[in-house]
Structure formats: structure tokens, C-alpha cells
Design a protein that fits this description.
With about 300 residues, the protein is of the alpha+beta class. The chain has 2 domains: about 10-50 and about 170-295, no CATH class; about 60-150, no CATH class. The protein is about 65% helix and about 10% strand. It is built from 8 helices and 4 strands. A 4-stranded antiparallel beta sheet has the order 2-3-1-4. The radius of gyration is 31 Å and the shape is rod-shaped.
């Protein structure tokens, strides 16, 4: 009876030493690409929920306009906005909140009273629900506000939000393309390593056939070796990738920029990243088996 213990010294091949590190590198790249897709998808959904159906009116001081003149402009803008059927609600943003929004960008010193930096006034607008799926056209409203109130502009969040989401979708497509290319590279690497092992141990394989070994038995030898290499490379790559994400998340958390998507993920997303290592092992097993059976089938 032919025993099932490994008889081919595949673990001693040169490929068995460098292949796990090559697999780990590809798994690291694939995990980071998948994490980028999930982070951008979550950030895009957050941006969409927070900014859809809202706009902002900005009123900047012009010339020697004092606080009283600015207040009159704000009240006039509120009157125009609340009279528009497109606007559900309009409320001025307090000056201290505007200063808090500007502080990460220009610093606390620039907001001090000694510099007398002119701070714009902002009005937060919530649009009325539209009867159709298309976004309401606020061009006429913006033109009227700009014409009647000096220094006032209507900022439609939907315009730059569409550009931002388009950029996020483009990055997601690139990340998926990277995942596909890495998968193909992993398959090609396993095929090359398996064929190399077949060539090195060709005489031993022929001897096993003479002793009555079936093709499936030889394929299992390569499968178990591929399983071990895939486990080592996959676990190493996923571990390094998760450590990288934790470091990036810690660094990003210290950056006071509200437009940066938070590099944080839910437990389900971390589990999805672990599946990259599992998928790597499956790819190694299937590729090794198919490669061996096809190569043995062509042997004389």
C-alpha cells in the first residue's frame, strides 16, 4: 500500500524558501487595495448622507463693512431664502462655529482680535424634497442672492460632491484592477513554482508511477506543499497589512482635516480582510492541483 505521507522533498526546493515571502507581498498589496475600497466606499456614503439636499450661503465682508452691515446682509439673505419654495429651512451658523471650522486651516493666531481678520458669515440651507429624482436647480436663486447682497455666494454642495464621488469611484475601480492583477500574478507564480518542482523531481515522479502511484497521489504532494506555502505567505501578508492599516489609522486620526476619510473599519470589514489570506490558500491549492494534473497528463 502506498502511504499518504509526503515522499517528494518539495520543502527543500529553493522556491519553498522565497515563495512565501513573494506571496506575503502580494497578499499585503491585495489587502491594502481591498481596505482602500472599503474605506472610500464608507466615506463616500457618509459624504452623500451628510451633504445631499443641503447648501451654504457665504457672505464675505467687502470694503469697510462692519458687523452691523454684515448682520443686515445675513438677515436679507435669510429673508430671500425662506421665501424660496426650494428651501425647506435656512439658519445662520454662529460665528464661533465658523471660527472653529477655520481654525484647523489657518490656526488660532489668525483668528485673534489683534489681526482683525475678516471672517465670513455662513447660512446653512436645507433644500425642500424634490418631487422628481433630479436635484433642484438653484442657479436662479444663487444669481438673485449674489445680485442683491454684496459679497454673497451660494455654494451648491452637490457640484463638488459629484466630483469627489467620481474620484472615489475611479480609485475604487483602480483598486479592483490591482486586486485582479495581483490574483493573476499569484496564479502565475504558483504555476511557475509547481512546474519547476515537477521538472526538478521528474525522475522521482516517474519512479512513483512505476511503483503504482496514481496521478492524484502525486498531485496531493504538490497540493500539501502549496497549502503550507500559502498559509505562511497569506498569514504573514495579512498580518503586515493589518499592522499597516492600524499605523495609518493612528496617523490619520491626528490630522485635523475633516475631508480625510477615517481609516477605521468595522469588525465585519476586518473579517473581510482576513478572507484575502483564505482566498490565497484556495488559489494556491487549486492552481497547484490543476498544474500538476495537466503536466502529468502530458508526460510520456
Amino acid at each position: 500500500m502506498i502511504r499518504t505521507a509526503p515522499v517528494l522533498p518539495l520543502s527543500r526546493d529553493a522556491s519553498s524558501r522565497f515563495l512565501p515571502w513573494l506571496i506575503a507581498f502580494m497578499v499585503w498589496l491585495a489587502t491594502l487595495a481591498l481596505a482602500a475600497v472599503m474605506v472610500l466606499s464608507a466615506a463616500g456614503e457618509q459624504w452623500r448622507r451628510g451633504l445631499t439636499g443641503s447648501m451654504t450661503v457665504q457672505i464675505v465682508p467687502i470694503g469697510s463693512a462692519g458687523p452691523q452691515s454684515m448682520q443686515r446682509n445675513v438677515e436679507k439673505a435669510l429673508e430671500l431664502l425662506r421665501a424660496s419654495p426650494q428651501v425647506l429651512s435656512a439658519a445662520p451658523i454662529p460665528a464661533d462655529k465658523v471660527a472653529a471650522l477655520l481654525e484647523p486651516w489657518i490656526g488660532t493666531a489668525a483668528l485673534s482680535d489683534s489681526l482683525k481678520l475678516p471672517i465670513p458669515r455662513l447660512i446653512d440651507i436645507t433644500l425642500a424634497p424634490s418631487t422628481n429624482r433630479a436635484a433642484p436647480d438653484t442657479t436662479e436663486l444663487g444669481a438673485r442672492i449674489a445680485a442683491e447682497i454684496p459679497g454673497a455666494t451660494l455654494d451648491d454642495h452637490g457640484r463638488w460632491l459629484d466630483r469627489l464621488l467620481s474620484l472615489a469611484r475611479a480609485i475604487e475601480i483602480i483598486a479592483f484592477a490591482v486586486l485582479g492583477l495581483i490574483s493573476l500574478a499569484a496564479i502565475a507564480t504558483i504555476v511557475f513554482a509547481t512546474r519547476t518542482g515537477l521538472a526538478i523531481h521528474h525522475d522521482v515522479i516517474e519512479l512513483l508511477h512505476l511503483m503504482g502511484a496514481q496521478d492524484d497521489y502525486v498531485a496531493r504532494q504538490f497540493q500539501m506543499n502549496a497549502l503550507w506555502l500559502g498559509l505562511k505567505g497569506g498569514a504573514t501578508g495579512v498580518g503586515i497589512a493589518m499592522a499597516t492599516l492600524l499605523v495609518l489609522g493612528s496617523i490619520a486620526g491626528k490630522i485635523e482635516a475633516c475631508l480625510l476619510p477615517p481609516i477605521t473599519m468595522a469588525p465585519l470589514q476586518w473579517t473581510t480582510l482576513l478572507s484575502v489570506g483564505v482566498a490565497t490558500v484556495v488559489i494556491c491549492l487549486i492552481t497547484a492541483r490543476i498544474t500538476v494534473l495537466r503536466a502529468i497528463g502530458r508526460m510520456p
